[in-house]
Specification:
mainly beta
Amino acid sequence: MQANYILPTIAAITGTISGTVTDQSGAVVPGVTVVALNQDTGVSQSVVSDSRGFYSFSALPVGRYTVTATQQGFETFKQTGIKVDADSSLRTDVQFKVGTVATTET
């Protein structure tokens, strides 16, 4: 007699993080590199926001994540402690603040 085993699928043990990238005025910011770093494993993934400022990480393994976003002219956005559970769908919107220019006196 053959035994039937049910193995968990990847979809059952992953979640998603997505959101929209905007500036302080609420205007969308396309072309932004967004990185999701798994704080438990040190593994990161990166995506680029689309023309509507939207980004999405699908099929992230469960764990705690840090999401960072960088774009020239803006301060780096960073949010830590985002907990991804099995089948979770989390929203983390990025709102950039205008960056400051450092000057050096000689």
